[in-house]
Amino acid sequence: MGLRRLCLIFCRLLGCFLLLGRSTAVSNAEILVLRHEVAVLRRQIERPRLSWADRAVLSALARHLPPVLRRHRLVTPGTLLTWHRRLVRWKWGQTPTGPGRPPLAEETVALIQRLARENPTWGYVRIQGELRRLGHRVAAATIRRVLRRSGLPPAPQRASQQTWRTFLRSQAHTLLACDFMHVETVFLRRLYVLFAMEIKTRRVHVLGVTARPTGAWVTQLARNLLMDLGDRGGCFRFLIRDRDSKFTAAFDAVFAGNGTAVIPTPPQSPWSNAFAERWIRTARAECTDRLLITGERHLRAVLTTYAEHYNTGRAHRSLGLRAPDDHPSVIPLPAAVVRRRQLLGGLLNEYHTTPPQRLLHPQETPSSAA
């Protein structure tokens, strides 16, 4: 701004020097023309808007005019004084600050929203206490305002808005899910497969294959499942199933005797049993849709092999790219040899690492090398 002002003053001084070379008659004629143009502009514009540069030039030149001519200028002496006071305030003024406390940092606001979303039962004071433990001192009223602006309701309402996804994640270690899967054979015969999944570990159990499923058949497979689970069967508190008529009261009684409550999903709501539905899609995409199934025996052998591969040799994104039967604390070290194992005639591949074998000296025997 200072450079612009100097440039403007230089231009005005240069114009004054050019006027000195003119004759008096030419200068008077130009003044009359300019006065008439100003009078015309005044009739068209009631109140002109001046920039800071215009104000500076008028303030500097107005002191050299006689009192008679000052009365006909665009600005009055009072206006000049107002401009001067404004410049003084601008020079010595400070940045205005609003009343009240300074606003919260964006990181603190994001942390409050995160704590409220991840803990639906936490109230304002509970969140305040957790923030204090983390080194943030925030009032409970401030937390309430932040949550209101974010569209997050109080703790009772947040807890009542629990979805099936949230319920399944929080209860995963105590949940079983079962469902039916159908496969069309080469002879256009439909076969039904009953399977169960442990939600926490994603371990799948193929219980049986038949062309005519009945309630008694399903109940017997439930007993077989509990026998296979053994002591681990008592860890499951809930079983999720749909409202198929083949899941009879006797089926529910088998799990009730084990202390497992059966939770039927809402009608026509496959997403309520999303983990079982996802396994059906995976099994079809990776196995059954790529084979021609001839009968029950063939399908039972194929799905048994695929279930073993799914539990021991297939990486899962939800398990940190591990298989359900992999120990979470075991990290295999890299080896020099990676071997492939083909399943179902090369349809599926499993890869295993083996330690590199050291070459023996011609005079060395295997027992001496060990």
From TrEMBL:
PROSITE patterns referenced in this protein's UniProt entry, alphabetically: INTEGRASE
GO MF, one example: nucleic acid binding
Source species of the chain: Streptomyces bingchenggensis (strain BCW-1)
Domain Integrase catalytic: 152-342
Matches recorded under InterPro entries: Homeodomain-like_sf (IPR009057), HTH-like_dom (IPR025948), Integrase_cat-core (IPR001584), RNaseH-like_sf (IPR012337), RNaseH_sf (IPR036397), Transposase_IS3/IS150/IS904 (IPR050900)
Pfam assignment, any one: rve_3
Superkingdom to which the source organism belongs: Bacteria
UniProt xrefs under Gene3D superfamilies: Ribonuclease H-like superfamily/Ribonuclease H (3.30.420.10)
Stated role: Involved in the transposition of the insertion sequence.
Listed GO biological process terms: DNA integration
Lineage of producing organism: Bacteria, Bacillati, Actinomycetota, Actinomycetes, Kitasatosporales
Annotated protein name in UniProt: Integrase catalytic region
